[in-house]
Design brief:
Elements (H helix, E strand, L loop, with lengths): L3 H56 L16 E7 L9 H16 L5 E7 L1 H7 L4 E6 L8 H16 L5 E11 L2 E10 L24 H76 L1
Parallel strand pairs: 1-2, 1-4, 2-3
Antiparallel strand pairs: 4-5
């Protein structure tokens, strides 16, 4: 059994660690409140913009537009992966990495060209040995910036419109609540119009006057649609990271409390054993002097 002073040192270390985990939990809670509000506003705008894209595509015969029509036998694909820069957030990053690895094992062989871009250091470090990396956008997830998201979306859309890629995917964590984030890999190009809700339900599209014509306007809307979707995903990724870190730090604090209780019990037992040993030595010495 360890000496009771060793248990005292361990308990002090755990108490210091608990102060850190509680501080990180409080910080993540505050950041989550701000990130969640920004995420909800961005998602609302992205839904309205997606509805506008569907409306314009319907006016211009979008089902026949080559930018919206799925390409037969796709041979090239591009994936944008969103993770965090920092750890200590439970399985937030690892779950998405496992999902991407499983997707690569199942679908990677059917593409002649498969390239990845990364927002977030954790995903870049975990996946880059297995894929061809196009770019890594550093410092893009800590404070999501709309201008950066628009630039990424414009770069992705231009390469897709030029025919360099047949499909474009977004690998991210969907945020359902502080205790629930689900890793998903979803196709963002070509746009699935059937999955997009209309901008204004019940309003006949034939009464809409549009300048320039829908055929000319649609590519510009689609380019911005990709940027809006990436920006909303970055904010959702930020909210999920803060929520996962908050939950992880709360769990760590509870585990530290349990360890402190265990070490306190062991320390008391060690102290009692030490006192008993000292008493035995004193009694034995007194008996030896008689």
């Amino acid at each position: 059994m360890a000496h009771f002073r060793e248990y005292n040192a361990k308990i002090r270390q755990l108490q210091n660690m608990r102060r850190v985990t509680l501080a990180m939990k409080m910080l993540s809670t505050t950041k989550l409140a701000h990130a969640q509000g920004a995420m909800e506003r961005a998602q609302a705008f992205e839904r309205e913009w997606s509805g506008l894209v569907r409306q314009v595509a319907g006016l211009g015969g979008g089902g026949r537009d080559p930018l919206l029509k799925p390409r037969e036998s796709p041979e090239s694909a591009f994936v944008l992966m969103l993770t965090s820069d920092m750890g200590l957030c439970g399985g937030f990053n690892n779950n998405l990495v496992r999902t991407v690895n499983a997707w690569l094992a199942e679908n990677g062989g059917k593409y002649r060209i498969l390239r990845f871009s990364f927002c977030g250091r954790k995903g870049y470090q975990a996946v880059r040995p297995r894929v061809e990396v196009r770019s890594h956008y550093e410092d893009s997830v800590r404070r999501p910036d709309f201008r950066l998201a628009a630039r990424i979306g414009r770069e992705i859309f231009e390469t897709y419109a030029e025919g360099k890629y047949d499909e474009v995917y977004l690998a991210r964590n969907r945020y359902f609540g502080p205790m629930w984030q689900e890793p998903v890999i979803e196709r963002i190009l070509p746009v699935d119009l059937d999955a997009v809700p209309p901008a204004e339900e019940g309003k006949p599209a034939s009464f809409v006057l549009m300048e320039p014509p829908p055929e000319q306007l649609l590519p510009h809307l689609l380019s911005r649609h990709v940027g809006h979707r990436i920006f909303a995903a970055l904010l959702e990724n930020s909210s999920g990271e803060h929520a996962a870190r908050m939950a992880a730090m709360d769990s760590a604090s509870k585990n530290i409390d349990a360890l402190c209780g265990t070490y306190t019990l062991l320390r008391n037992r060690a102290r009692q054993a030490s006192i008993t040993t000292e008493l035995i030595e004193v009694v034995s010495g007194a008996e030896a002097l008689r």
